[in-house]
Rrf2 family transcriptional regulator (Blastochloris sulfoviridis), 145 residues
Amino acid sequence: MRLLSRRAHLAVAAVLDVALHARGAAVPGKAVAARLGLPARALEPLLQALVREGFLAGTRGPHGGYTLARERRRIRLSDILAAAERAEPDGLPPSALIEQIVTPVLAEAAAGARERLRATTLDDLCRQAEAMGLGRDRSGEDFTI
């Protein structure tokens, strides 16, 4: 069961991908999209939203792409998820059942998850991915995460 939207999952994955692959150079959006199995045009609006929210820095031009806008240890997963929620309109129809029953129960469940996510930084995820050998191979070449 997924409590978070696809967009929220992609936001965390995109920032993590940039953190793992931006070693002194900007990571092209097309490269991030390819590693996440998406067309570049589908991911670009989310990457731009992450720039506006201050998680990524974007550079235009032939050598452009994305880098982290701040240290990975200063980026909390809860903040990325909140940004993804702000960038995604709430598509729920008006309904007493949703508003009075479903939303409060899911909000309570989400509160516990938010506490865990506040305690988790991008650095924690990067260390876990690097320990598993994800992100770069021994030659320094990028590969799919």
